[in-house]
Amino acid sequence: MARTYLRGTWRAETQDGRPIPYAQASVWDAAEGGQQVTDLRTLDGALIPGGLLECDAWGYISLPGWIDPADVPHLFLIGSPDGSIPGVGRVHLAPADTPARVTSLETQHAGLAGRVVGLENSRGAPGGIATLDMTGRVPAAQLPPGGPGGGGMTGVRDVVAYDADPTGATDATAAIQAALSDAGAAGGGVVWVPGGLYSIRSGPLRIYRGTHLWLAPDAVIRRDAPGTMLLNGDADQNYGGYSGHGDLLIEGGTWNANGTVVGQHNMVISIGHARRVTIRDTVILDVPGYHAIEANSTETLQVERVTCAGFVDSVGDRGFSEAIQLDGAFRQSVFGGFGPYDATPCRDVVITGCTVTTSGTPGSGPWGRGIGSHSASPDQQHSDIRVIGNHIEATREYAVGAYTWRDAIISANTIRQCGAGIWVRSLDSSKAADRTRPDGSSITGSQRLSGIVITNNIVNDTATIAGAPSTSVGAIIVEGETTGLVTEVVVGDNVVDGSGTVGLRISNVTTYSIARNVLNAIGSTAISQLSTRAGVIADNSISSPTGSGISVDSRQLAAGTATDVTVHRNVIRGAGSNGIHLFAGSDLLIADNTVNGATGYGMQVSTGTEHSTIADNRVRGTGSAGINITNTCHYMKLFGNVARQTSGGVVVPTTDADNLSTNNSTTADNQTIAA
């Protein structure tokens, strides 16, 4: 078989890199000595006289290519008719019709004697240049010891060299495990999974400290029998805290959990009691029942650019399963891989660039939740969590469920057509298991949660969650309890477009800011608050909620508790109920808001609200009074408000001398109000 060579990047040049114009290049069958190959032909088949290749003025071969009819295994080129230039070596050529070879570096620097010698000396050395065989592969003889029987780059274990079947026809579990175990025994290393299909029938695979498990882009590991696919360590180990098998990097390829075929509840990658773990650039398909990734009792975790596509709930009892779950070593029922169950939570976690979606596989469906947690233990909150820049769609429940997370940032995520959007929750005192420590002792009530930032998210078309309390469902929810307030909360610069329930709801929250959010087409109240205090709701834009625009409900606060909430500079258009509604509470400031087109009142203040100020607001086009203060309210101060095109203007009880209403415009458009 004749072999074709192209002009490439080789040129005749001096040792200092200057071209040799019009040199004659000769072709040889060895790097040194050997025989000159003279039977060379042009691409159209004409004989090249003497086999000498003419160079142009820049030292490059003039012909676009040439043919070796004899198919000599390896050819070497030098810019000399007799095959020898002092200090310059011959250059190994790469045929154009053979798979890619490592030759570009050689050809590019062929004229520099020192570099050529360096390249020659590096052949077969770790990280060096190899002479490839006829198929473009590195011959085993040129590889240093590393795999079974020799061959393989130092520190890299190729699972095929361990006899893993890349066709999927036989069980590859033992072979892949042997590579992982060897890496673990060596104190770490790279386990390489080349392209192919690898069947796991006797898992789980177990990965050990310091291992880099690297799948080629076209490598697929498929679960063909019940069981978790990958676990960090052994069932009988007893590493507490974060002292288990860590320093792990898992990346590339596809993990196919095959849940439509093997339906028993299992997960794909399960990590516990570890420190410094990265999982990135991989695809996880069709998980049955549990999770694509579970990080349990893990510190310094990064999950980057992982796609979790497809979930199978064959029994119908796992509608809450997260694709990516953070959990703690709280009890065996939440992490069955190994103990100890010392209540270690997760901390210092980054989940970014990930996608949670459906797979389209017949028989699979949407995930229960995208990213989150659903179990807890007293005094052990997950902390320093960053969920940033992910895309989550079509989950049955929450896209992000931050249960007992503190010091958490949830930002720049896109969420589409999920049962609910972002949910933050302090410990749920109604769940006895979550109130119980591993030693069996228990607490009463909930526990305080602090440091929550929810910003720059886009949440489109959330719906409802079957069986969930309406107070816990919406596009963005922050939910505490009277015994477990959520504190230091920022919800800002989010966009919510379409929600079957509330747009943004907070309850039992203190010391907070809700600012610059845009909410449109909300199926209930746009911004709803229950039992909140010490907060600011400012500069939000609200359009077309079926309920009220903003509500501040303080009816469940303890008697005498100051609400201390400011509602400032919000714009509310087309509310299906009231523009702003205040229930009970004290020390409220409602100032400089605009309400246009509410079906009910522009602003309604009721249920014993007191010691509050409503000032400089603008209300227009309401079905009822522009501003209505019921006769249960006391010590109210109203001034500088404008209500026009309304039914009733500003209504303040005249029988209660505690209330003061001055300089409010209620009769004519463009009326000038005296100072």
UniProtKB/TrEMBL annotation:
* Compositional bias annotation for Gly residues: 362-371
**Position of the signal peptide:** none
| Region of interest (Disordered), ranges | 361-382, 656-675
Q: Which InterPro entries match?
A: Beta_helix, PbH1, Pectin_lyas_fold, Pectin_lyase_fold/virulence, RHGA/B-epi-like_pectate_lyase
Alphabetized Gene3D superfamilies for the sequence: Single-stranded right-handed beta-helix, Pectin lyase-like
Segments forming domain Rhamnogalacturonase A/B/Epimerase-like pectate lyase: 157-214
Instruction: Show the SMART domains listed in the entry.
Output: PbH1
Origin species: Nocardiopsis mangrovi
Q: Which residues form the Right handed beta helix domain?
A: 503-665
Q: What is this protein called?
A: Right-handed parallel beta-helix repeat-containing protein
